[in-house]
Specification:
Length: 123
């Protein structure tokens, strides 16, 4: 079993930045792929970005150029750096992980999930 704990959310104004962190209860090198999802009020959960153990990355078009996903396997932590935030980025952001060495399809149901952290962007 793997526990994931997100942090770093908050309330910011449009154009500002936040960095989300996801700490795993065990080595993420052995876990595999990690991802960030988000869910806005009244909307379905959607993939934001994913990263493999080797650093291969997938970022959705809506945040490409503004968000960066990274991981530190020695610290068992994944990050989501969010720059130039927009009001439409407002959502609960979730960290996910699974025992995969390749990037799964966006619809893939990751096995492990964090509790989420709220990000609110005001205009």
């Amino acid at each position: 079993q793997v526990q994931l704990v997100e942090s770093g959310g908050g309330m910011v104004q449009a154009g500002e930045s936040l960095r989300l962190s996801c700490v795993a209860s065990r080595s993420i090198f052995s876990i595999g792929a990690m991802a960030w999802y988000r869910q806005a009020p009244g909307k379905q959960r959607e993939l934001v970005a994913a990263i493999t153990t080797s650093g291969k990355v997938n970022i959705v078009d809506s945040v490409k150029g503004r968000f960066t996903i990274s991981r530190d396997n020695t610290e068992n932590t994944a990050y989501l750096q969010m720059n130039s935030l927009k009001p439409e980025d407002t959502a609960v952001y979730y960290c996910a992980a699974d025992h995969l060495q390749v990037l799964p399809e966006p619809e893939y149901e990751y096995t492990y999930w964090g509790q989420g952290t709220q990000v609110t962007v005001s205009s």
